[in-house]
Amino acid sequence: MRTDINNHPVESILRLIRNEGIKADMTVCPGDFTNKSDVQGFISGWDFSLEISRELKSNEIVATLGNHDVDAYDSFSNYSLDIAKGIRKGFPIGNEQECDTFWSKGCVFLERQGFRILVLNSSHYHHNRISAGKGKVGKDLIDYVDQYMTKNGNNKISIALAHHHPVNHSRLDLGEDDIIINGSDLVEVLGKHEFDLFIHGHKHDPFLRYYNCLENNNRLPIFSSGSFSATTNLSWTSQRNTFHTIQIFKDEKRCNGSIKTWTFIPKRGWQVNNDDNGFHANTGFGFRGEITDLKSKISSIVGKRKIVDWKDVIEKIPDIKFLIPSESIALEEMLKKDKLLLSGKLSENPDIISNVKIEK
């Protein structure tokens, strides 16, 4: 029931958005609006997404298909995309021409002011039970992406959106068989054209890491968003449901991003969660240097002072905001070894850093 706000993820997120004044240029949904292609679930899932997008005052909402959004088992239709194409209400893309390209090519470039999104349908080949076991992008699609970017590439923020993961994501015993076929070739092309972020769903496990592209040594951040409202998420993956906002900053030299995450906790609603088992509440991507250098700079700023305001450190070393979770943890450990203690984890935006080498 929606009247039980703290137990209803949609009603709870709407209240959070209103209370915190959260806004977004675009709402992005990486697929699986329903379970096992259930029609009413699909209609409700997309309606909920539209509600959230309106509350965020987004300019538009963009989605892709998940494996559960495709009737590959012929449960409701003898055409696997019949339900998805019949949802309407701007699904998956509001612009009719862009939507037609998405259905026909299995992908579409959305060119917007200051940024572009490549929306990929990794469920494009889910025509039957066997083909639905993996995501896939065709070689012709990868060639199309390469040719398009060769002609149209510029310094816009460039984001790829898909449902399935393009590189291995088998932690938490989640398996290796559902990866995108030709995914490594896809990310190599995205790296060649200096894409700034790859967002995917499917794994129910929020995770942020880099893929090191071979051709130009570009590091492509790959962000698994986790799930928003899967009721069995804890039993499947031990991970809770999550909701994210992403800010991306780009100039001629580099691109950085920050991600804020809220976690849904039953009977408490959406919370900023910082326990060790969850995804970092505040994290980022785009740092290009060495963690040891950051530690040395922090140590130099603290010097012989006992306590320093952390915001003063961030002001002088803004790169700290753009560390992925594994880098943040590594920096925390280095600081501890140097007897520099934060008042909380980096993901908690600590208030101070203390130099315990200094005698009281």
Structural description of this entry:
With 360 residues, the protein is an alpha/beta fold. The protein folds into 2 domains: 5-285, Purple Acid Phosphatase, chain A, domain 2 (4-Layer Sandwich), CATH 3.60.21; 291-355, no CATH class. Helices cover 29% and strands 23% of the residues. The protein contains 10 helices and 17 strands. The chain has helices at residues 9-20, 39-55, 82-86, 96-105, 139-152, 183-192, 233-237, 291-302, 310-316, 325-337; strands at residues 26-29, 60-63, 107-112, 115-120, 135-136, 157-161, 180-181, 197-200, 207-212, 219-224, 242-250, 255-265, 269-271, 282-285, 307-309, 340-342, 352-355. A 6-stranded mixed sheet has the order 3-4-6-8-10-9. Strands 11, 12, 13 and 14 form a 4-stranded antiparallel sheet that branches. A 3-stranded antiparallel sheet has the order 15-17-16. β1 (26-29), α2 (39-55) and β2 form a beta-alpha-beta unit. α1 runs parallel beside α2, α5 (139-152) packs parallel to α6 (183-192) and α8 (291-302) crosses α10. The longest helix is centred in the first third of the chain and has 17 residues, at 39-55. It is globular and about 75 Å long. The mean pLDDT is 92.
